Amino acid sequence: MKILLTGANGYIGMRLLPQLLEQGHQVVCAVRDKERLSIDPVIRAKLQILEIDFLKPISKNLVPHDIDAAYFLIHSMSSSTTTFDEMEATTALNFISYLRNTSVRQVIYLSGIVNDENLSKHLRSRKNVEQILSKGKYHLTVLKAGIIVGSGSSSFEIIRDLCEKLPIMITPKWVLTKTQPIAIRDVISFLTKVLGHKSTFNKSFDIASPNVLTYKQMLQQYARVRGFKNWIFTVPVMTPKLSSYWLYFVTSTSYKLALSLVDSMKIEVVAKDNRLEQLLGIETHTYEEAIAMAFKKIEQNLVVSSWKDSMVSGRFDKNLEKYIQVPKYGVLKDEKRMKVNDDQKVLQNIWKIGGDNGWYYGNWLWKLRGFLDKLSGGVGLRRGRTHPDKLYPGDALDFWRVLLADKSARRLLLFAEMRLPGEAWLEFKIDENNVLHQTATFRPKGLKGRLYWYSIIPFHYFIFEGMIRNIVKS
Questions:
Q1: 69, 387, 440, 444: which one has the fewest Cβ atoms less than 10 Å from its Cβ?
Q2: What's the CA gap between 461 and 365, in Å, rounded?
Q3: How is 381-408 classified by DSSP, letter by letter?
């Protein structure tokens, strides 16, 4: 089958894509920016990639006419705390317009469980999108899931951060709300098995694990799987805003996502039936099994995708392709050079930079800078990196974004997503004479930007000098 995959660079899309290819389907990926589709070049070569922004009206229909099915995996919950419902409605309407002149027979939409009478704004938006999509000239299959548990998912990473960092927790009363999580492996199974399955046409299904748990029980069971104990005490006085700040500072989530999550965590998200499990012959995993599977992937460095690599996890939600050309004029620079004896070893060191590996010199200063950035509402160092020694364009790397990662050209280019009075690039390149060039470029905004740069020159001298030295010698 020829399949249109929207949200291809999202958490679910990145997991679904290799499964569709493995099953022999021809996949057309729709993304806003080709450069942000951070996948292996071998997989990329098998795809047709379209640049489409579904928030904008159609100017030219790029979607092939002979599409058989399409996945709608787009959401805007992290993009805005006030208008994401309008954005999601616009996206759905434009999606229908793109499909109008195609031969598509089935659209598969991954939504949220919306059985509670008092829905959050996020869940109301999900329900509204379903109603919009149902008006298209195709068969709609809707899968409704609650919390998705898997390595790199936002929910899993929040639970992980809370439990690993806080053995004793003072929590809001919403931790007593019931929910029914599901393993990412089961979500992908449902998404692939309903494809072309006529019994699922024009129907919606709840999908979930066998366990109905409170968020408190989820935290406790996580600790049990990991082999330690935690103590959780609830208080009735923590407002939604305070709860959001609490999640933001303790966990790796962004503030916008934290605010939306807290709003939804007050609502029971419990499945009504398991019809689809019986129809497709799927036996879902328990919550504890989902945690164990997630850690198996983490320990083997096989995390396929992470919500942190999403553009909305950082400061910018726009096309970063224009930043690949580092400006030459009106900028301030710190450039270091050092002769390289073993270029492949040095490239390995460069490709391992950040995350748990650190920055090769003055890691406590990098952590301090990340902490200050987070205090000011930035991303800080919370995102780390998805893989310990692989980098692709579009990946998040601490408070940087990978713009270019080309080992054959021996070049890595990063763009800063921290809060700055200007724009910053960090580049590593080995030239034809085997000299490593490490260049920090800063384009200041006004006097404030220049004062910022000159105030940190003393720190740059030690940090950047030590970094290039240890990259070459490590």
A1: 387
A2: 13
A3: TTT--SSSS---TT-EETTEEEEEEETT
